[in-house]
Every structure is written in C-alpha cells, then in structure tokens.
Automatic annotation (TrEMBL):
Transmembrane segments: none
Domain of life, per lineage: Eukaryota
Full protein: residues contained: 158 to 265 of 265
Protein name stated in the entry: Probable carbohydrate esterase At4g34215
Lineage: Eukaryota, Viridiplantae, Streptophyta, Embryophyta, Tracheophyta
Length: 108
C-alpha cells in the first residue's frame, strides 16, 4: 500500500495532533479488512501543506512504528509555483524513491 496524504491535516491543530493515531488505526483496519496482517505500507511524509501545523503532521508520519511500515520523505523535492504540489520531475523522483523503499524493505 502506498499512501501520500496529509496536507489538509496541517490546517487544524486537532487534526495534526490526531494524525499518528488515525493513521495507525487506518493501517490496522485495512490490514484487518483485507486479512493481510503484514501488508507492506510505504507512507510519504508530506513536502508541503497550507496549514501552520505541517511540521507536526510530518513528525507523526515519520514516527509511525508499526511492523512493515516505512516512510519516504518528500521534503526537499521541487514544488510547483502553488508551493503545494510536486513538479512533474519531483513526482518521477518520488516514484523512484518509493520503488527503492519497496525493494529495500519488502522485495523477496
């Protein structure tokens, strides 16, 4: 499972503070629903966000400690002029980073 989400959670302190618990619950629920308790999850730590709590969301993403969950950090990848979305080149680079994470952590 590849997961890249969290920008909207940067707007409200409550959402940012709840992010880690919510994400851990989501991972457990998806694994339970699919009957795949060891489903590999690669999460992307967001590179941007409109809200003032971006650092809290990023910290939550980077600190998730569940088995078979790894995080790829998108910070530093080039953003479009809207300062929110990755450029096309950055999206391609992120794709390579995700593939590398999969191969390093989950490939047989």
């Amino acid at each position: 499972l590849l997961w890249y989400q969290g920008e909207s959670d940067t707007a409200a302190e409550h959402d940012a503070e709840a992010y880690r618990g919510n994400m851990e619950a989501l991972i457990k629920d998806v694994r339970g629903d699919l009957g795949l308790p060891s489903l590999p999850v690669i999460q992307v730590a967001i590179a941007s966000g409109d809200g003032r709590y971006m650092d809290r969301v990023r910290r939550a993403q980077l600190e998730i400690e569940l088995p078979n969950v790894v995080c790829v950090d998108a910070k530093g990848l080039p953003l479009k002029d809207d300062h929110l979305h990755l450029t096309t080149h950055a999206q391609v680079r992120l794709g390579h980073m995700l593939a590398d994470a999969y191969l390093q952590h989950f490939a047989p």
